[in-house]
Amino acid sequence: MLFKKPKTGIALAGGGAKGLAHIGFLETLKENGIPIDIISGTSIGAVIGAAYALEPDIEKLKATLRILIESDVFRDLKLDKFKSVEEDHWFDRIRNKLKMSITFAEAATRPSLVPEIQVVKLFDELFGEKTFEDTELPFAAVALDLISGKDVLFREGLIRDAVRASTAIPGIFPTVSIDGKLLVDGGVTANAPITAARELGADVIISAIFGYEPSPPGKLESSMSVILRGDELAKLKLFRMLIEKADYVVEIDTGNTHWTDFGMYEECIEKGKEAAITHLDKLKRISSGGLFRRWFSFK
């Protein structure tokens, strides 16, 4: 058993539209013979991970997501309202402030900024009645329980419910109630689902992430901007601690892609490929290192 082939787990982080790069990342691993034995995902990583675990066919995955992103069901989410325009003109500044004011007013009076019926319809369309027992690869999704404060690892039941919980960005998408738990996006506390991959039996864990440096601070002139900045930095500190548990980390640079820029799926997929190719030699070595993998220093 000492020389048994190690199981390689791929932990896919959240990042909104940036997470489409996971497709290109997985494609390059598969094309170059790097094993994908186990997948765990948080947020968009859970969406990509679940779809791939159900059917490990990259071309079908690309086609499915492209159709979904271009569908009326996806457009009805109206994610564009969460993106500010470049402030090149005084009118742009007014429009951004007006949009923010409306958004905050909605947040104070509604359970979520995106109606639950639209989100449920989206995940029904994507996963239907598929369960974790239907996957070809072991898969787990991570969410956060607002009641207990604990991370929740999904390994059984309906995939659509688990992934919907894992992607429920607090305040933007509706919370998900399952077995007495009130669940939101796992990215709040476990944006790198490394522990999940380990619990599924992975010997080697490769995590694909979208950066661990803070974003530009912008103008910290309002109380809300200060609150949001503090929240970002706190989550970032926790995230940096989490990724230390991976055997190898690949940072995918998607440039200035906003988390709502799902129309840029082709560009994001290419970025995922580029990141994997850059790290290819080391990924091959770490995935075949087995019990001796920590003799190498790759991070």
Q: What can you tell me about this protein's structure?
A:
This protein is an alpha/beta fold and 299 residues long. Helix content is 44%, strand content 13%. The chain is built from twelve helices and eight strands. It has helices spanning 21-31, 44-54, 58-69, 72-75, 90-109, 116-127, 159-166, 187-190, 194-199, 223-243, 265-278, 280-288; strands at 8-12, 38-42, 139-145, 151-154, 176-178, 181-185, 204-209, 248-251. Strands 1, 2, 3, 4, 5, 6, 7 and 8 form an eight-stranded mixed beta sheet that branches. α10 (223-243) links the parallel β7 and β8 (248-251). α1 packs across α11 (265-278). The longest helix is centred in the last third of the chain and has 21 residues, at 223-243. It is globular and about 55 Å long. Residues 85-99 and 290-299 have low confidence and may be disordered.
